[in-house]
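Workshop exercise sheet. Pairs work together: one partner reads the sequence aloud, the other fills in the structure field after running the prediction. Swap roles for the next sheet.
Pair: D.N. / O.F.
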Amino acid sequence: MKYISKKLTIDKVKVQDIAEKYGTPIYCYSFNKLKKNIKNFQKNFSSFSPLICFAVKSNTNINLIREIKKFGLGADVVSKGELLMAIKAGVSPKKIVFSGVGKTSEEISFAVEKKILLINAESESEVREIDRIAKIKKRKVKIGIRLNPNTDAKTLSQISTGKKENKFGVNEKIFFKLVNFCKNSKNISLKCLSVHIGSQILDYKPYEKMLRVVDRIIDKINHKFEFIDLGGGMGISYTHKDKKLNYAKYNEIIKKFLKRHKLKIIFEPGRSIIGDTGTLISKIIYIKKNESKNFIILDAAMNDLMRPALYGAHHKILPSIKSKRKSNKTYEFVGPICESTDKFNTLKNFQELKEKDLIAICDVGAYGMSLSSNYNIRLKPSEILIKGSKIQIIRKKQKYKDLM
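Structure field:
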């Protein structure tokens, strides 16, 4: 996004024009940014050509998944619904990995039938259930086992997944036990060691620590893995204070690891692919003034963008028309929902705003629409994909008759 003649634009389209034609709130995605992110990710790790499986949970719009699939990406799914979505979008089952701690018997059966690349199991009970289902279906099922490496990703506690107190994966002792179980099973083929330590990671050092643990485990175990699934978690810059993850450093660490272990790397990026492609355009309904601040009441709410209310996430907010007039009041950008957590940001020295003005909430492509809800029986907003100066409606706004 940038300002052209003081008017905020997404690629070649003015935010004002989008709002006038399609209404607000509305999710807008930049195809150019999406393409750039994917190409950048592929280029940074081209020396070992990983299988890149887009984390569908980060954005579940089937039209976006179709676009992502065209660049050769697979899919990382965590439910039967996401698996159905990925297949319907045209993703090859041979490029799909199924993660998650609570796969039901129905979900496992469905994944087995679809002959996906891997089911990444996260507990002893799950491995035994896969074995049982595979036996019934007379199939040899390829699986991974997710190791919990007890590695602190130095990210928000709510999105940390690699510490021993987190629910994800199994510890070293159980991991070794499950490897032996798989060796003695006629129904399971253990192909992958899987790890994932968290989300919105901006420092390569936790990944380095994680790989040291994986390196040690492989050395201790007498098993030939075909894949190492390193998960995703690569962060993006939500604020000017956020530093960018050094892909070059991470690439070097993996290359060093691969000199000792001849394996295929799998990545499961979501946010780093889709996060900064998305913008939520909203209109100011009212400005409510009090002694200490002004509440900027928007037509977007926490049901449209849950991240700030869920774990205090920050998103940049930009006015649709740039002005040099600064407000001497603190602005608190809030939604109309009956919850005190229904707020997006509190900002000082923002430019003066008035009712009916438009604002843009930035970097909402990941966990924006996918976390949205109908709380307060509010309609989910429409979504559009911008390709240069062309606009494609990729999800229509809900209607009340859809909910009633």
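Discussion prompt: The chain has a mean pLDDT of 93. What would you look at next?
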